Amino acid sequence: MIGVPITARGTDEAVAKMQQASNEADLLEIRLDGMEQIDMERLLAAAPLPVIATYRSRRQGGLGTLDNRARSEVLITAAEAGASYIDVEYSLPLEVREELFDRCRPGRIILSHHHPNGTPEPAELSRRLRNMADSGADIIKIVTRANRPEDNLTVLGLIPRARDLGVDIIAFCMGPVGRLSRIACVPMGGFLTFAAFEKGEESADGQMTVAETKALQETLALCE
Q1: In what order do the strands lie in the sheet with 51-54?
Q2: Are the beta carbons of 213 and 182 closer than 8 angstroms?
Q3: Which of 17, 113, 115, 141 is catalytic?
């Protein structure tokens, strides 16, 4: 499954981009942290595909500057307006995460953690995966930055570990060196990978377009 990020400054622009992306995507991720004006009801009502609502903080690599409580309220509003999934950052205080879990369930929580500057050692990532899985989240998302080719293998190795723990996972690396893991995440059993619907619409470093991602998966015989 390929998720397409939607970055926009306001509701009208986001709705237009969702329509453009709908032929390429299986699912849309609306990046609320970059929006200056949001009509949540109209935005979610216009979504042609299931939506992940994401408010990414600056510390986790996004544009969001709201405090923890305000971010939580934005996500709860998105869940109540019909978002299929809510991206909850693992770095949020436990009481804020628990409130989001309680008010946005069932089956809708993607618990995410990003390492924007590098890839920790395998043992550290495995510990983080177990801790995140123990939280009761529906899907775990762990993204690192690949500074060397073998970082891709470290992060992709989380996918069979998540399977053993009985939890879905999104696991790949950012950056140009991380493109291998973006391509291989889903064929290895990951829940989804992300790709832009066209050049210039990338939401993260190293992200390719949907067409490029599918073409490389086909070339490498990674598609079913």
Answers
A1: 168-174, 139-145, 109-115, 85-89, 51-54, 27-31, 2-6, 193-194
A2: yes
A3: 141
Residues 6+ apart with CB under 8 A from 160: 188, 189
Label residue 28 exposed, middle or buried (CB < 10 Å: 0-12, 13-18, 19+). buried
Do 151 and 119 meet the contact criterion of CB atoms below 8 Å apart?
yes
115 catalytic? Reply is no
The residue length of the chain stands at 224
Q: What tens digit of pLDDT does each residue of 83-142 get?
A: 999 999 999 999 999 999 998 877 799 999 999 999 999 999 999 999 999 999 999 999
- Assess whether 114 carries a catalytic annotation: yes
**C-alpha to C-alpha distance for 94 and 84, rounded to whole angstroms:** 22
pLDDT in tens, 139-184: 999 999 999 999 999 999 999 999 999 999 999 999 999 999 999 9
Query: Among 114, 115, 199, 214, which one carries the catalytic annotation?
Result: 114
CA 190/CA 169 separation, integer angstroms:
5
CB atoms within 10 A of CB 164: 8
Supply the Cα-derived Rg of the chain in whole angstroms: 16
Q: pLDDT tens digit string along 196-208?
A: 999 999 999 999 9
Short-list 140, 69, 137, CA closest to 105? 137
Tell me how far apart the alpha carbons of residues 100 and 84 are, in angstroms, rounded to a whole number. Answer: 14
Residue 57: how many CB atoms within 10 A of its CB?
19
